[in-house]
Structure formats: structure tokens, C-alpha cells
Amino acid sequence: MNQAKGNQFAAQASSNADREGKKQASRHRKIDAGPRKATVESCECLKKIVDLDTKSTTTALGVPEAVNNSAILKYRDLEGYINELEENCESVEQSDMQILKTNVQLDTLEKRVGNLEALTDQLDKWSSQLEKTTRKYRDDRRTKHRDSFW
């Protein structure tokens, strides 16, 4: 019986030691759980910060992208006007070349008209002189004819 009591006491002591060991292990776990939990929470917090920063950066990059897309659409709208302007410029250049050719021809014609005017003036002077000479000659003949008649 003593032996049974001793075994019982040993079993109880072993049981108490197990409980005490488990309590200490639990305390260590709680102590260990504190830094682990803090580390996990820190990692989660950092992950959230990185996610928010990424979203913020993505959003910030979306603004210039939207501006660029808007500018591209405006440039596409202007492309038709630019093509029309190019065609009009070509037409104006052709017209300008034609006007230059016509100006050269007009200058030549103006010089010729000026020469013709000078010739006409000279012919008018000669005609006037011829008329005067002819009148004088007629008058002289008439006078001579009268004088010879009387």
C-alpha cells in the first residue's frame, strides 16, 4: 500500500510537473507570440502601405495617361484640318507660281505698251509737223497761184 501511495504520489507529482511545464511553455509561447504577432502585424501594415502607395502611384500615373489620350484624340481631330491645309497650301503655291508667270508677262506687255505709246507720240508729232508743212505748202502754192493769176 505504501508502494501504491508512493506510486500515486509520484504520478501526481509527475502530473503537476507536466502541468507546470505546460504553463511555462504556454508563458513562453505568449512571450514568443508577442514579438511574432507584432512582426506579423508590422508585415501586414507594411503590405497595406505598399498596396496603398501602389494604388496612389497607379492613380497618379492614370492622370497623365488620360491627358495624353485626350491630346491624342484632339490631334486626330486636327489631322483632317492639317491635311486640308496642306492641300490648300499646295493650291496656293501653284496659284502663286501662275501669278508670277503672269506678272512677268504683264511686265513685258507694259513695256511694249510703253514703247507703243512713245511711237504713237512720235507719230502724232510727225503728223502735226506734216500737217503744218502741208498747210504751209498749200498756203504758199495758193499765194503763188493767186499772184500769178493776177
From TrEMBL:
Q: Name one Pfam family in it.
A: BLOC1_2
Q: Is Coiled coil found in the keyword set? A: yes
What UniProt keywords apply to this chain's record, in alphabetical order? Coiled coil
Per the record, the similarity remark reads: Belongs to the BLOC1S2 family.
Composition bias type Polar residues, residue spans: 1-16
Q: Which organism is it from?
A: Dekkera bruxellensis
Q: Where is this region: Disordered?
A: 1-36
Q: Which InterPro entries match?
A: BLOC1_su2
In this entry, which stretches build a coiled coil?
68-136
* UniProt name for this protein: DEBR0S2_11672g1_1
Domain of life of the source: Eukaryota
